[in-house]
Amino acid sequence: MCTSIVYSSNNHHYFGRNLDLEISFGEHPVITPRNYEFQYRKLPNKKAKYAMVGMAIVEDNYPLYFDASNEEGLGIAGLNFDGPCHYFPENAEKNNVTPFELIPYLLSQCTTVAEVKDALKDVSLVNINFSEKLPLSPLHWLMADKTGESIVVESTLSGLHVYDNPVHVLTNNPEFPGQLRNLANYSNIAPAQPKNTLVPGVDLNLYSRGLGTHFLPGGMDSASRFVKIAFVRAHSPQGNNELSSVTNYFHILHSVEQPKGTDEVGPNSYEYTIYSDGTNLETGTFYYTNYENNQINAIELNKENLNGDELTDYKLIEKQTINYQN
pTM of this prediction? Predict the structure, then answer.
């Protein structure tokens, strides 16, 4: 399970996600330069037009991105979508893209959400595994650009669907239109103390602060996280500089993070928030925290040689740093 958001500050837009799983695959930050040649299963090989940075595992020198953003300010995150997700056989009338290729396919050639929408008109997501060891994951995707516009892309039995995303968040099931409809059940939730409309005229004892959020769901399930992250994002302050913006951004994501031991997925197996990350879509600076180290770490895309043809890997910093004051 996962959560992804677009956060808008007074200066920039930030895009990223929480990755919630029961096991780590060795994911780490990876930069793909402009001249890296992607080998597609059903399309001609093509060099990337735009460099990108994000969290990936690298298999056979191929970056399998969980999420990434390119140098032009377009970001994409793939989130679990088990159940509704459906991939298709090869279609001779479409550009056949495997789901593990979708992030590099779009980020290497598109700069805006509008360009993504146009590219997806000719795409069919085909059911081809990366390898026998690495089968496809059932996914849907949040995509956003540096204007703050975002969309959700879902491949189901009825086809490939592209939805405008007015709340700029995504979790997992159900399908995105159902997640939006569910928000109506919580439309009266507010940061302010509630007015007494239950028994008007009676002086009720508002015994606690925060009663306006009393019915805000707090479960680890995807529908609860969707409601909560939509609320927290909508009411979080806009940062006035990079430090305050990044701090606000991670507080939003961490409001729905999953501690170990709270979401059992099998005998003695628990899903947890392996990492949280985000990119300033204007500057290309990539930030992350992980379960073992909640210090915010940063990688600046534009400090690397983006005209190369080899991947750049960064070791995930997993050792906690504590600032002792005495």
Answer: 0.95
